[in-house]
Give the backbone structure.
Amino acid sequence: MNAHLRPLREDEFVTWTAAAKAGYATSIEHDGGYSNEAAQQKADADFEQLMPDGRVPEGHAVYLIEDGGAVAGRLWVAERDLDGDHVLFVYEVAVDEEARGRGLGRLAMEFAEDEARRRGLSRVALNVFGGNDPARGLYRSLGYREVAVWMAKEL
């Protein structure tokens, strides 16, 4: 595999933000049970809260996954206090649909773990929607455990 991760360049920010926000809104709609409009509104609000000045916040890092010279996915991480621990939090790991099944998600998560170690952190944490079985399977295969499960039932 000729794949690697590299830092997002400033000239790629607008394209990355659009792709990340669209992917997040799709997940909120499909796996979170939101309407399309509500999912878009939540994605817009969450991105506005995380990036009020329209740029990658201090302490956050965004990487693009390249495979064979082409961008095939994204990784967004930041240090965060969570459950009484200082962790590297994975805000996004996404592999483009046409590039899935080639180990790029695993590569990105292993990169995140190495980044946590480089920063002197001993824990990586993330949130994954319950309906995202491929991602949940990947995380389990890497040794991640579920910490909490939020459930709902439509009536």
